Amino acid sequence: MTKTPPLALPISNAKSFKCPHCYCYSTMEYKEVHFADDPSTIEDGNKSYKTGVIVARCDNCGGKIIWNDGPYVYPNMPPEEANEDMPESVLELYNEAGAILRISPRAACALLRLAVERLCNTLGENKNKLSDNIASLAKKGLSDDIIKQLNILRVIGNKAVHPGTIDLDVDNPFVAYQLMQVLNSIVQRLITDNKRTEFLYNKLPENSKRI
To answer: Which residues contact 93 (CB under 8 A, 6 or more apart)?
Structure first.
């Protein structure tokens, strides 16, 4: 059976999680390294994070997982693989976002917002504002849940460019990782599912298509 990569970034000090090396759910052994004269945690505004390096070793494969001063840094988790039906113009930005997700989650979120603009263009919407394009799709009958997904990418991507009051940390790689999953879901439903429906429908006898 094919082992699939984890869908979430590992959390430090969790007793067990899906290893990003062997993709097995495994218990972990931990080591922590920091300078003796450093505090164990640092307060940064409303955030508190550990200093030093935390290393976990997978009991199944022996692979090392590393966090540095709090954030997860190694190994580089593969981004959500793009849906094969993703339009080329959208795929270009999607892959770029995946490539920089670990380095700059904020930039990845902004790229994914731009990817939604291009997706709307492929759906025939070419208004100046992304919000207007999404509103137009809603008026044309696009389902409420897909409209919500488009707005998730729009609003979080906006925050990546223009800080606002939304209670999501666009500097957290997992936020960008989730946005990639949302975009994939949209493509699956708007393009892949429709292609499959059309393919199967076209296989029906002509007299069976009449209701």
So the answer is: 111, 112, 114, 115, 118
